[in-house]
């Protein structure tokens, strides 16, 4: 699973970062996507373990972890399979903003595939003990929350053609949720 996450994530990231034909951005993005998947997962696992312990499911933790890793591997493999489509879109001279949105859709599709793989692995657990449903739902909420912040920290993945290539953007360590709230408030206030 780890090899699939690294290889699939690197391939898609390299293609995603190739917008505007910037080789260094392509390399950075190739490194960032597997980092996003692996670090987000690693940051969530201690809380997930505690939750499983509180639910009385600690003996099933290894099996649940196997399901999580299978889901992440499926996500990365689907991303790799979508890489040629992303390259085709880029060759079609799509605007930068559209490329960002397009990659968001690609990640959504791959994430749904990863969730389907995770669900398949959790079905036997849920049949044995319905409390695994709580664990499964908690994992999704926890992972999405952490992955959004991790993606914010690791940006840019595509790299704006108007900005110099860099591994991080200035202000990378800010809070994604505070930034989005500020954008929404400014939009509502007309500023």
Explained architecture:
With 191 residues, the chain is mostly helical. Helices cover 78% and strands 0% of the residues. The protein has 6 helices and no strands. It has helices at 2-16, 23-54, 61-91, 96-128, 131-154, 176-189. The model has no long low-confidence stretch (mean pLDDT 92).
Instruction: Report the major sheet.
Output: none
As a percent range, the share of helical residues equals over 70%
Percentage of residues in DSSP E strands: under 5%
Number of H- or I-type helical stretches: 6
- In whole angstroms, the N-to-C terminal distance is 47 Å
Counting DSSP E segments of at least 2 residues, the number of strands comes to 0
Low-confidence stretches: none
Q: What is the typical, i.e. mean, pLDDT?
A: 92
Which geometry do the CA atoms define?
A: globular
H-E order: HHHHHH
Classify the secondary structure makeup into a structural class.
mainly alpha
Write down the Rg.
18 Å
Which tags fit this structure?
single chain, 6 helices
Task: Draw up the topology in text.
Blueprint: H1 2-16, H2 23-54, H3 61-91, H4 96-128, H5 131-154, H6 176-189
């Amino acid at each position: 699973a780890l090899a699939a996450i690294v290889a699939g994530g690197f391939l898609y990231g390299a293609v995603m970062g190739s917008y505007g034909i910037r080789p260094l951005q392509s390399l950075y993005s190739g490194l960032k996507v597997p980092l996003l998947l692996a670090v987000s997962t690693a940051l969530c696992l201690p809380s997930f373990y505690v939750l499983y312990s509180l639910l009385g499911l600690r003996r099933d933790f290894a099996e649940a972890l196997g399901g999580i890793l299978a889901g992440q591997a499926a996500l990365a493999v689907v991303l790799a399979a979508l890489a040629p489509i992303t390259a085709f879109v880029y060759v079609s001279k799509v605007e930068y903003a559209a490329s960002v949105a397009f990659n968001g859709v690609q990640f959504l599709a791959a994430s749904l595939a990863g969730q389907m793989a995770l669900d398949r692995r959790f079905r036997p657990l849920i049949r044995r003990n319905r409390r695994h449903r709580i664990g499964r739902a908690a994992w999704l909420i926890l992972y999405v929350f952490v992955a959004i912040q991790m993606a914010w920290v690791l940006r840019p993945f595509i790299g704006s053609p108007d900005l110099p290539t860099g591994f991080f953007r200035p202000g990378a360590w800010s809070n994604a949720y505070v930034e989005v709230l500020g954008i929404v408030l400014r939009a509502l206030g007309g500023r």
